[in-house]
Amino acid sequence: MHQYFVMLKDNARAITNTKVIVGVAMFCALEVILDMFNIYLAPTLRITFGFLATAASCYFYGPYPNMIAGLIMDFIGYAMHPDGPYFPGYALNAILLAFIFSSFFYEQPVKVWRVLVARLLVVLINYLFLNSLWMSIMYGDSFFVLVGARLLKNVIMFPIDCTMLYLLLRMCARIKPQLKL
């Protein structure tokens, strides 16, 4: 546990590193591109692939740069695709996503269990609980109805998302020594 807090302290210094800022910005651009390929299942339910860019960025650059990028990307994402009123709760989702992915992937070996647990936490906390809560607050819909629709989608997408995430992180692990980060 002590090593984790040392890693967090060291990663806080990365915010001022130009290579880190540029790398995270490139992954943010990739996230914008991947989010253009949404698949809408319902007006409030969609399949996205932007999380893959976030996960790769978290693997390479860690929590602090990616949590800041998540906050900024929330504003950029809303400015590019304003679906309804802006709600700051989604910024918290982006920050939590970066924190969870960084906790499991940054300076850690790529393991199937890490991918499964990280994705499960994101699904439970961000997608099922917080997204449903934010939409319930914003639109007055029933929280439990929103959770039910999201639960079905996430049960179906969980193995697909985990497989894509695992393959992406394995590829990142192969190229990381060449990048000299």
Could you please describe the fold and organization of this structure?
The protein is mostly helical. It contains seven helices and two strands, in the order ααββααααα. It has a two-stranded antiparallel ribbon with strand order 1-2. α3 runs antiparallel to α4, α3 packs across α7 and α4 packs antiparallel against α5. It is globular and about 45 Å long. The mean pLDDT is 89. Keywords: Membrane, Transmembrane, Transmembrane helix.
How many domain regions?
A: 1
Per CATH, the architecture is: Orthogonal Bundle
Q: Catalogue the unreliable spans.
A: none
Number of helices: 7
Gap between N and C termini: 24 Å
**Mean pLDDT across every amino acid position:** 89
- Total strands: the figure is 2
Largest sheet: 2 strands, antiparallel
- Biggest β-sheet: strands ordered side by side in the sheet: 1-2
- Roughly how much helix do the residues carry, as a percent range? over 70%
The H/E string reads HHEEHHHHH
- Would you state the CATH class? Mainly Alpha
Q: CATH topology, anyone?
A: Arp2/3 complex 21 kDa subunit ARPC3
Q: Which class best fits the helix and strand makeup?
A: mainly alpha
Strand content: under 5%
Q: Could you tell me the radius of gyration in angstroms?
A: 16 Å
